[in-house]
Design brief:
This protein is of the alpha+beta class. The protein is 46% helix and 16% strand. Among the domains are: 72 residues, no CATH class; 92 residues, Chitinase A, domain 3 (Roll).
Amino acid sequence: MNFLARRCSVLALSVAFAAPALAQDDADARTVLATVNGVEITVGHLLIAHQGLPDQFRALPPETLFDPLLEQLIEQTALMLAGEDAISLRDQMVIENDRRAAIASSVLSRAAESAVTEESLAAAYEAFVAEFDTDAPVPEYNASHIIVETEAEAQALREELDSGADFAELAREHSTDGAAAGGGSLGWFGPGVMIPEFEEAVAAMEPGDVTGPLETRFGWHLVRLDDTRMSAAPALEDIGDELAEQIRREAAQSEIDRVMQDIDVTRSMDGITPQVLGQPELLDD
């Protein structure tokens, strides 16, 4: 049902609009805009309704949306009041489960987000670095390459390099993969990332060396080793997002554990088997 289309109500509504109108600076989320048989509709309800609209509607000016949105909430409230006593068992269970899930999600979200602070990120990073295997570092390589389709093309480019041509310029002009735009740079990589023949060639080089033509299943390469280093723990800015997500997960689980410690649970499942999940007709009135 399109909330922008004015609809004729089939119900006699008892609607009292809040008056006098408040100045914008005086309004808050609890400011009452209307009541329907005593049920309040507030600025907060209107804001939530607005946030739930599709993007193309939310892009409309507020003065276009305000009245239709408020009318929708009024009509929905009237329908709610009219249908509360006649709601089906299925709908009642849906509402109760949705409320349960929404509140639980809100509790966990607050716990998770409040746990991510500069202090907690620093502590998580310190723990990560402490567990990083610095006793068995492995070599990492920073290399660039030019890849072409034929050995003849690769050999011609190798001769240009040997005559003093710029590697990055040749890569940008001739290389056929995505690294070409960056002058052929492949960035840093460790063991197992590149195909074996490429990795073996790089491992045998010294920084500044150029090798090739080198054939792989992808084509013919000219390879330059730019630098080497031994593996080290990544910087905080490189893994901050992953650490923050870990903190959120742990905080959410801690909140569940805390709440469950203080809750009284009585399970009454005598005579109920998992097969009950195959009986949706139990929800029929």
